[in-house]
């Protein structure tokens, strides 16, 4: 028992160490956002300096990033609200179908994810312009939901695949229809799956760059596009994009924290199976 | 049952059918973005690309980088997921912190990593140089440049694998693992014969997704090396981008895109068939 | 089965409504602002701000981003026949390509009409050349940027060395100044833009890019010698030069890890600011050895399909480029107006201006070929392969010559 506890302690120490190393690029980015450029790239690296909030302030207050944050949140939020339910339904159908079409269909779905995105850029622009929806929320949301579907379906399907079919059958025998069996019996068992899927869909929509560059304008510009506008051509811009990058992380981090509760709770359904 | 599929299929058909179809359509034409009109060339674009040495060398580079980075991130992601599962303490904090690299906006993640790897004033170099050690040229040496890209991609995407695999572990039936423990299976045996087989569908999923995405590996290469030194890190997608927006040859770029799609699809189907022949259904 | 209106569903309905509202409002809006799409650096940011207030009653909606993205977005919009952006950023290489594709409004008539009112004759002819294609003017120059040779005056003085008179000298100088912690020179060969830095060495050691019929000269012995010389220079360069472009180059100077190198005029001001530089006052600028170095004009053009009044757009641009504005922006970029450039006050206040004036006199724009971006894409790749030793110089240059000839043949050159 003592050996086991020691082993756990060792493992934990290794995990903590790894985590710290893994965080270095972000911490360094944070430091850069708090320094003047002359100090930010000094050799040897400067760890003692007078921090400045100048760049954070400039980005969020003077350069309108607060408004872009709102755009990002609306687009990511609505995308998740549409994409996850719709994708979960489809995933359940594909997981339970005995038809021979299911598997090819599943792989076919992913074609979108196999084509380099840049090739979709021109047709997406043409289509959105034709519909007159460039620089509106629906354009981005529709694109994000569609692009997200294959991933959502696949991920949810792997979670449904782990749920024994006997569970559905029992529900059907007990007088549920398909919808009820899904909604009341199967869905609750894959809550961790739904949580993870929502998290990744949110991140994908929130961080999307290329489609956002093409489909948004000054009314709907999202944060990644805004940050990329300061990607270079002046050393001060780097400090600005570092400041933006640190700030843009907060909403997804909060979302991850919220989702985590559901992640851990998945432990319980083993008993249902019995 | 088919009704469950309807909303999803409808949205995808409405939004994606045209862009996908037009990419395939353009691949049969000579389409110069600066010129006027399209000229049908049949399979000309495809044959031209397949005859190019550049296509094959970029493909090889892509396969090396994708193979190495997916293997590395699967190994680390799985190890982390299992370690978190075994330790059970501080799980939330550690997962959250390790997940952060995946939260950073891709455009900026690449810049953050550039600040690590850049010659002399990048963090790696500047730490080494403070001790009067002069490290290799991380982005300028053909081999190190590939290694740096593999590390960069792993840093970005390992959290994705960690989280999905950990969530998978959480939703498994723990009674089997406990039963194996009672039966006297040691840690390795439990991993090999109980945990891994149970996780197979999820592992296949994450590997498939990562292979797909890594094949289209773009932002990181574009920002860190732009294919250099010379063509040492030029990937297929970088070449597609260069064809489309620098050479303005949208027809040839589309053909290259479709070739990429076919390649990845072949790879994924092959992987699934191989695994299926050896065991239970994985997809 | 029952459909309870759960909180989530209500939220969904609400958000759908919220989404529809702005979409409907958009079609109803009467007076759309002028859409400006531009590259972003401090000088262009300054002018974008001036544009939004230049003409009362006209609102300007400016989107500024790094050059690669801006050019990509412009190509997508213009090639699909969009009427916006109304005003777009071009430089000396994109202007030829866009003009040849017929995407830009020729400005000759408008220029003549407003010549007197806005003192347009004051604008440097060299800058105008950078906005023209086949004898027509397509854009209004904002700034003309030029490459200078920057060197650490303190280090050269300590060793009693002089700035180089030729590129051969520059190699010797870089070698003499090279130490483990401070490289002899800094080079940026990240191949994501035209090879501005190679321009001077190709033109002075080599024979340049093309003969008068657009046949490439790369495979000739002098161009090969030029690239071989540059390879020697890279041995004393800050490591990672294939992954570096202007920003990294600037940091290399600012952090005291490079002793010499080429630098754009727009970057000089950062060298003397203590917030960005650790070598304040120690850098000096001169003309690159032998001259004939790159210059490029950043300019604003009018979309040919714009639905706005083109005369009004022209006046808007001319207004923003007033002498007062150019004077105000002088520390950020090189003004195209000659009265501002030669102003003794500015020449004294901004210590790099004398070098800039001399550099402009001997600079040589990249070839005014509509396909130059594509040519550069092919040729630079081979030149960089030769420089990093991935290919023998001779082979790389012959390959470059062959590939460029094939490209231009396919684009309809060399007929007759």
Q: Helix and strand layout, with pairings?
A:
The complex is a heterotrimer of chains A (274), B (283) and C (416).
Chain A: H1 2-33, H2 37-40, H3 54-62, H4 65-96, H5 102-109, H6 111-114, H7 118-131, H8 137-161, H9 165-173, H10 178-189, H11 191-207, H12 210-215, H13 223-228, H14 235-248, H15 250-265, H16 270-273
Helix pairs in contact in A: 1-14, 3-14, 4-8, 4-11, 8-11, 9-10, 11-15
Chain B: H1 2-26, E1 29-31, E2 38-40, H2 44-50, H3 53-87, H4 91-103, H5 106-117, H6 123-130, H7 142-171, H8 174-182, H9 187-215, H10 219-224, H11 236-246, H12 250-278
Antiparallel strand pairs in B: 1-2
Helix pairs in contact in B: 1-12, 3-7, 3-9, 4-7, 7-9, 8-9, 9-12, 11-12
Chain C: H1 7-28, E1 34-39, H2 42-54, E2 60-65, H3 67-79, E3 87-90, H4 92-100, H5 108-114, H6 125-129, E4 132-133, E5 136-137, E6 139-152, H7 153-158, H8 167-177, H9 199-204, H10 221-234, H11 246-254, E7 260-264, H12 268-271, E8 283-286, E9 295-302, H13 310-320, H14 323-328, H15 338-341, H16 344-349, H17 353-362, H18 372-387, H19 393-410
Parallel strand pairs in C: 1-2, 1-3
Antiparallel strand pairs in C: 3-9, 4-5, 6-7, 6-8, 6-9
Helix pairs in contact in C: 2-13, 8-10, 18-19
Describe the 3D structure:
The complex is a heterotrimer of chains A (274), B (283) and C (416). Chain A is mostly helical and 274 residues long. Chain A contains 16 helices and no strands. Helix content of chain B is 76%, strand content 2%. In chain B, strands 1-2 form a two-stranded antiparallel ribbon. Chain B is globular. In chain C, strands 1, 2, 3, 6, 7, 8 and 9 form a seven-stranded mixed β-sheet that branches. Chain C has a two-stranded antiparallel sheet with strand order 4-5. Chain C has helices at residues 7-28, 42-54, 67-79, 92-100, 108-114, 125-129, 153-158, 167-177, 199-204, 221-234, 246-254, 268-271, 310-320, 323-328, 338-341, 344-349, 353-362, 372-387, 393-410, and strands spanning 34-39, 60-65, 87-90, 132-133, 136-137, 139-152, 260-264, 283-286, 295-302. The A-C interface holds A 36-38, 41-43, 74, 77-78, 81-82, 121-122, 125-126, 129, 132-133, 135-138, 141, 177, 179-180, 213-214, 217-219, 221, 225, 228-238 and C 1, 8, 11-12, 15, 18-20, 22-23, 26-27, 35, 39-42, 61, 63-67, 69, 73, 76-77, 79-80, 82, 181, 245-247, 250-251, 254-255, 257, 270, 274-278.
């Amino acid at each position: 028992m003592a050996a086991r506890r020691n082993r756990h302690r060792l493992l934990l120490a290794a995990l903590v160490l790894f985590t710290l190393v893994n965080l270095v690029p972000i911490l360094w980015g944070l430091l850069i956002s708090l320094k003047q450029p002359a100090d930010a790239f000094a050799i040897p690296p400067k760890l003692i300096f007078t921090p400045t909030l100048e760049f954070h302030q400039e980005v969020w207050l003077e350069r309108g990033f607060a408004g872009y944050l709102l755009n990002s949140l609306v687009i990511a939020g609505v995308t998740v609200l549409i994409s996850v339910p719709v994708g979960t339904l489809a995933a359940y159908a594909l997981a339970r179908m005995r038809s021979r079409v299911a598997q090819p269909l599943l792989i076919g779905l992913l074609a979108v994810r196999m084509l380099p995105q840049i090739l979709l850029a021109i047709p997406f622009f043409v289509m959105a312009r034709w519909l007159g929806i460039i620089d509106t929320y629906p354009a981005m949301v529709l694109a994000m939901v569609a692009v997200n579907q294959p991933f959502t379906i696949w991920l949810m399907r792997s979670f449904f695949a782990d749920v024994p079919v006997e569970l559905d059958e029992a529900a059907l025998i007990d007088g549920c229809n398909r919808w009820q069996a899904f909604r009341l019996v199967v869905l609750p068992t894959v809550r961790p799956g739904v949580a993870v899927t929502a998290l990744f869909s949110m991140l994908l929509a929130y961080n999307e760059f290329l489609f956002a560059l093409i489909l948004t304008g000054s009314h709907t510009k999202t944060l990644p596009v805004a940050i990329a506008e300061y990607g270079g051509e002046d050393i001060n811009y780097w400090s600005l994009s570092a400041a933006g990058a640190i700030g843009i992380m907060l909403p997804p981090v909060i979302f991850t924290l919220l989702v985590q509760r559901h992640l851990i709770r998945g432990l319980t359904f083993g008993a249902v199976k019995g | 049952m088919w009704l469950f599929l309807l909303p999803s299929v409808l949205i995808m058909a409405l939004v994606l059918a045209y862009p996908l179809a037009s990419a395939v359509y353009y691949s049969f034409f000579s389409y110069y973005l600066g010129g006027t009109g399209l000229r049908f060339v049949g399979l000309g674009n495809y044959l031209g690309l397949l005859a190019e040495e550049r296509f094959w060398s970029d493909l090889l580079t892509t396969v090396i980088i994708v193979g190495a980075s997916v293997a590395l991130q699967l190994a680390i992601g799985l190890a982390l997921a299992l370690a978190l599962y075994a330790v059970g303490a501080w799980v939330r904090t550690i997962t959250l912190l390790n997940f952060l690299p995946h939260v950073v906006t891709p455009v900026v993640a690449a810049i953050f990593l550039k600040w690590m790897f850049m010659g002399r004033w990048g963090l790696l170099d500047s730490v080494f140089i403070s001790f009067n050690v002069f490290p290799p040229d991380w982005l300028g040496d053909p081999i190190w440049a590939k290694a740096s890209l593999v590390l960069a991609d792993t840093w970005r995407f390992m959290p994705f694998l960690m989280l999905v695999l950990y969530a998978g572990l959480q939703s498994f039936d723990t009674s089997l693992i406990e039963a194996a423990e009672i039966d006297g299976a040691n840690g390795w045996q439990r991993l090999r014969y109980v945990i891994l087989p149970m996780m197979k569908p999820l592992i296949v999923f994450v590997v498939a997704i990562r292979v797909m995405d890594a094949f289209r590996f773009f932002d990181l290469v574009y920002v860190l090396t732009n294919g250099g030194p010379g063509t040492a890190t030029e990937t297929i997608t970088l070449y597609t981008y260069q064809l489309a927006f620098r050479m303005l040859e949208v027809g040839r770029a589309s053909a290259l895109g479709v070739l990429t799609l076919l390649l990845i699809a072949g790879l994924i189907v092959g992987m699934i068939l191989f695994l299926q022949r050896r065991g239970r259904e994985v997809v | 089965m029952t459909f309870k209106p759960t909180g989530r569903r209500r939220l969904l309905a609400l958000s759908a409504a919220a989404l529809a509202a702005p979409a409907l409002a958009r079609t109803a809006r009467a007076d759309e602002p002028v859409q400006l799409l531009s590259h972003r650096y401090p000088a262009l940011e300054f002018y974008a701000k001036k544009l939004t207030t230049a003409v009362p009653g006209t609102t300007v909606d400016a989107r500024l981003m790094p050059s690669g993205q801006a050019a990509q977005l412009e190509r997508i919009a213009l090639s699909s026949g969009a009427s916006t952006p109304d005003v777009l950023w071009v430089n000396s290489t994109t202007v030829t390509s866009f003009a040849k594709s017929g995407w830009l409004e020729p400005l000759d008539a408008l220029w003549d009409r407003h010549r007197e009112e806005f003192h347009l004759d004051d604008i440097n002819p060299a800058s105008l050349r950078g906005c023209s294609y086949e004898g027509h003017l397509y854009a209004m120059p904002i700034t003309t940027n030029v490459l200078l040779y920057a060197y650490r005056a303190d280090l050269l003085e300590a060793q009693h060395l002089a700035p180089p008179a030729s590129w051969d000298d520059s190699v010797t100088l870089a070698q003499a100044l090279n130490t483990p912690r401070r490289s002899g020179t800094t080079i940026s060969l990240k191949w994501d833009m035209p090879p501005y830095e190679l321009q001077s060495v190709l033109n002075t050691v080599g024979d340049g890019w093309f003969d008068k019929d657009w046949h490439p000269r790369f495979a000739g012995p002098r161009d090969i010698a030029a690239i071989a010389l540059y390879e020697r220079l890279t041995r004393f360069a800050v490591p990672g030069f294939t992954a570096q472009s202007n920003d990294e180059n600037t940091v290399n100077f600012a952090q005291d890890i490079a002793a010499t190198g080429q630098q754009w005029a727009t970057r000089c001001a950062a060298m003397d600011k203590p917030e960005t530089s650790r070598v304040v006052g120690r850098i000096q600028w001169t003309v690159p050895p032998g001259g004939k170095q790159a210059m490029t004009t950043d300019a604003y053009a009018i979309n040919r399909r714009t639905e706005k009044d083109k005369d009004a757009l022209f006046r808007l641009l001319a207004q923003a480029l007033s002498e007062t504005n150019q004077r105000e922006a002088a520390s950020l970029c090189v003004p195209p107006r000659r009265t501002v450039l030669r102003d003794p006050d500015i020449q004294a206040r901004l210590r790099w201006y004398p070098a800039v004036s001399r550099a402009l006199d001997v600079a040589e724009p990249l070839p005014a070929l509509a396909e130059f971006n594509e040519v550069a894409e092919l040729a630079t790749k081979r030149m960089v392969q030769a420089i990093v030793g991935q290919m023998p110089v001779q082979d790389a240059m012959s390959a470059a010559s062959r590939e460029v000839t094939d490209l231009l043949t396919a684009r309809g050159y060399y007929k007759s």
